[in-house]
Each structure stands twice: as C-alpha cells, then as structure tokens.
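User: Second chain of the day. Same drill as before.
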Amino acid sequence: MRKLKLKDITVSSDSSIKNAMHLLDRGGLRLVFVIDEKKLLGIVSDSEIRKSILKGTSVSENVKNILNPNPVVLQEIQLNNQYETKMVIRKLIQKMPGSTHILLVDNQKNVKDLINISTLIKENQFPFKKNYQHNKRILVIGGAGFLGCILVPKLLKRGYKVRILDNLMYGSSHLSPILAHTNCELLEGDIRNISTLVLALSDVDAAINLAAIVGDPACKNDPESAIETNYLANKAVAETCKYFQVNRFIYASTCSVYGQMEGNDELNENSALNPVSLYAKSKIQSEEGILDLMDENFSPTILRMGTLYGYSPRMRFDLVANAMTKTAISEGKIHVHAGGKQWRPMLSVEDAAEAYIKCLEAPLEKIRGEIFNVGSEVQNYQILDIAQIIKKSFPKAQLIVEKESFDPRNYLVSFSKIQKILKFKTKHTIDSTTKQIVKAIKSGEIKNVNDAKYYNIVIDS
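Assistant: Same format as last time:
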C-alpha cells in the first residue's frame, strides 16, 4: 500500500467542490482538508458533498461553501499526553468510522503532519478493536443472487458495511444468515426506479452492480425486459452513482461478449467482440455506456466473468457444470449438448467473489476505466471436458453426448491482465465444488433440485 501524503488529501480554499471530489478518491480517507497556506480551515467529507448535491449545489462552486470548520484533529501538545491522544482518536473513530489517519496541527491550527492512526495505537498500546479502521459501506446491487450471496458475506467478514439492493425475484429465505449480521441491510426494490436508486446510494462508498437478466435463454424469452434491465437500467445506475459521487463502480459483465471466436487464439480484453445473443449484446451496450461516463472522478470498472459454477445459498442449476452435477445425482445421467466441442471459460462463484474484492480494494489508478476478464486459462474447457470431470465424481452416471451440431457460442479466453494487475488467481475447481453441491442435496438443504427457484429459466450452458 502506497504511503499517503498531505498533498493527496489537501485543497486550497479557492478550490472547487469537483477538485475536492477528485482528491477524495486519490486519498481514500473519505475526506479532504481545506488549507490556506499552512493553516487548517476545515474539512470536506464525501457525505457533505452528497448532501450538498442533493440540495442543488453545483460541483463547480467553491469548496469553502460546504466545509466543516471544526474537524477532529490532534494538537502537538496532545501528542505528548497518552490519555488525550487516546481520547482524540476515539472521538475521530466515533465520528468517522473507517478513519486511518489523523491530522497533526499546532496551537495556531498550522498543519504539521499526517499521522497513521495504527502507528499511534501501536506506540501507545491502545486497546482498540482490530477492525476499527474499516467500516466503508458497499452497495451490492443484485446481492441476493447466485454470486451476491457469496460476495456479501466475504465483504462483511472483511469489515465492510453492506447494503443489498435486490428485487427478490427468487425469494429471500436464503438471506436470513446474511441479514443476521449487524453490518448488513436489505433494501427491496428495482433498479429501474430512480427513487429507489437514490435511497440505495445514500452514504455508500462504492457500488457493485450484479443485477441483470442473466443468460441467453432468459433474455431471449423476454427481450424487452432484457434491454430495459441489462442496458437502460444499468446505465442509469452508473449515471446516478456518478451524480452522487459514488466514484468506485464495478459492473458485472460476461465473457460471452466474445461470442464466436475465429481460430483457436485466446481472446483478451482488446479482442474484437462477436456477440451471438441478445444477452451478450445488452452487456456490450452496458459496458460502452458505463465507460463513456468515466471522468477524472468517476472510475468504473468492468469485470467479464467466465461461466459460473459452484454452490451458493441462492443455488442455480441452470449453469452448465451445476446442471450436469444435478442430473448426475438425481437421474444418473450427464447430458452433453451439440457434441461438446465448444469452448467455455469456467469460473467458480467463490473465485468470482474474490475478484470483486480485489477490484474494490485496488488503487483507483489501476482499475479506472479498465476491463478485466475473470477466470483462469487452466479452466478454459470444452463442454465435453466438463462432463468428464463431473463423471469422475459419479462413475456410474451415464454420459450422453448428443450428435455434434453447430453452437455459435465458442470462445477461449486469456486472463493474464487480471493476474498481472490485480494479482488474481483462482483457487477452486469443478470437482471440489461438485462435492459441496452433492453435500447440500444429500443433507436435505436442497430438497427438490427441480424447484423453479433454482432456475433463471432453462439450462444456460
């Protein structure tokens, strides 16, 4: 982690609110200090900026118009008194959870230094909780879904506060353990409702948008809703985030945007897109619309995921590996469509969640306006390969391979960019997650594998 410097979090009194917003992202403290020469005038926090925008204040106005003139700072004379230092730090943490640094000033309010709170606590042996530094609030749109139910607990475990926005299309009973956490809240609503969006974005630090009508069959079944949700609504989400200065925005896209590859070369983020479905086309439109909104403050990132598999509290059996596992255990059969020679990049839902966390915690300069394929080269599989992996867990299951036919969805994908820039590596495999699914079925946690709640529509392979 780079060392924070005063220049990263200070603006002069003649600066605009927009300039302060830019430094809010670069500094990562959720506030900037307003200084004339060396004298501290006050602070401007992200929440104060959002409140002023809601009241109609222009971001081109002077930052002095919205500053708080009485911030919590540490005076030099207090630094020599352990008790007073402890009380000042406690007051700062209470007022601004997640604070990692405190400003040191002299008795004339001249700025002297920026001090890491962890250093002060360690040097003075203060008994603060280990996770006192975190507490950023993350909005997870679609957080009740297949991926969201894995991502949200991981965020909570890392000390984040999480707000889930979801229309609960597939129910909410599976959310009970997650919502029991004191730092998790649920807002039931639709991203197509602007009032709901404004409410959801209140006092959040970053947004992860997982919401979509997922898969080729589901989009084909209801094309109007697919365009409305996957493109128009998702672009509106990004625009609203930009307006309210939720500047770290991560959008869930898909490797299916590559469609039908030509030749056998692995496709990277700069490869030509060749969508063969409405689902893929709507994702491309969303990617383009979101990236067009990028400026010096708004920092969207696109994650193109491989085909997901694995266990989730909001289970899905309409994904190729999960579908094969289900029929193997319930019917003693594994079906392979169209001959099985078509390529797919596979990605466990657990690894996918880790990719979002990597992106969320990366320096903005590394992810601003970037597109990342999410997966691993070793899990570029032909469909028949997937079936054979699953058959190893069910040796008695009958492998049924349909006569070879044309499947336009066929793509090999490179994941070197996310491995290099975000140091992302997959840890889970199809065979290991198959065991989790089998356990959930045999234990009775999943009572009826054919229940409609486990399917977005039909098998999406």
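The first strand starts at residue 10 and ends at 11.

User: Great, on to the next one.
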